[in-house]
Amino acid sequence: MAFKSGFATVIGRPNVGKSTLINTIIGEKIAITSPKPQTTRNKIQSIYTAEEGQVIFVDTPGIHKAKNKLDEYMLEQVFKSLEGIDLVIILLDATSPFGHGDEYILQHSKAQGLPFLLVLNKIDSLSNKMLASRITHYEEKTGREIIPISAKKKRNLNTLFEEIFKLLPEGPQYYPEDMITDQIEQFIIAEMIREKIFYLTREEIPYGVAVKIEEMTERNNGMIYIRAYIYVEKKSHKGIIIGKNGLMLKKIGQKARKDVEKLLQTEVYLDLWVKVLKDWRDKPELVKRMGYKE
């Protein structure tokens, strides 16, 4: 059987489960998730290798209306992710009907002339009767066959892979079979910290937060010391992240450290600091400084 390989971009509206799908496929937390939309900011490549071939999945930010320079960067990442791609996976949300955002993504993908799959996620949230109705609704709206899945419950992923490998070209193995991402550890660690902020803080806080790893060194006892700066846009946001008597920052650190230790397979000392960078999302030079650049 011929070995197939290629790059597959996963695109969709915010919060349809793109990062959850990729993490489930890879079997490791590479892309962060949260119940809030626009969690993913960067284009993240994750690598799946099987006997049939190798798929390099490109996770992207959700497509949304840009409100600041960071949003513009995120949308640019989405459209750049279509360059040099072999397959587009359009992820749809079974808990909501086909909408204007889905139509925009579908038409943009068609315009690229690339093969694409329409994948309906979160089917575990619907009854069988409601799901059948929703699949019919999406197929009527798109004129294409829908692949229903649950990324969270790992349902019907075999069917998804069958369809992916039907469309991918024959090709080489681009990465070693034990490699699951091209991202450096510092990036993943910073994202893990940002994920905990999404889960633990108020609605308005996460979107104005960036995390940078300033130091990562191994101590004599084998422990990894990591110093990270959490940047926020307002002084009031700094107070919320630190919390009363530093309790919120401690909670963020404790939860993030568990994920980081699992990633690094060793004990970690996570040293978190909070700094204010006023309205950094509206300033191109600060957006770049936070690591959001080509």
TrEMBL record:
Region described as G1: spans on this chain: 12-19
User: The KH type-2 domain covers which part of the protein?
Assistant: 201-278
Please name the InterPro entries in this protein's record: G_ERA_dom, GTP-bd, GTPase_Era-like, KH_dom-like_a/b, KH_dom_type_2, KH_sf_prok-type, P-loop_NTPase, Small_GTP-bd
Keyword Membrane found: yes
User: GO molecular function terms here?
Assistant: GTP binding; GTPase activity; ribosomal small subunit binding; small ribosomal subunit rRNA binding
According to the record, the residues making up region (G4) are: 121-124
Name the Gene3D superfamilies on file. Answer: 3.30.300.20, P-loop containing nucleotide triphosphate hydrolases
State whether keyword Cytoplasm applies: yes
Annotated family: Belongs to the TRAFAC class TrmE-Era-EngA-EngB-Septin-like GTPase superfamily. Era GTPase family.
Q: Describe the protein's quaternary organization and the partners it interacts with.
A: Monomer.
Cross-referenced HAMAP family: GTPase_Era
The entry's protein name is: GTPase Era
Give the species this sequence originates from.
Answer: Iocasia fonsfrigidae
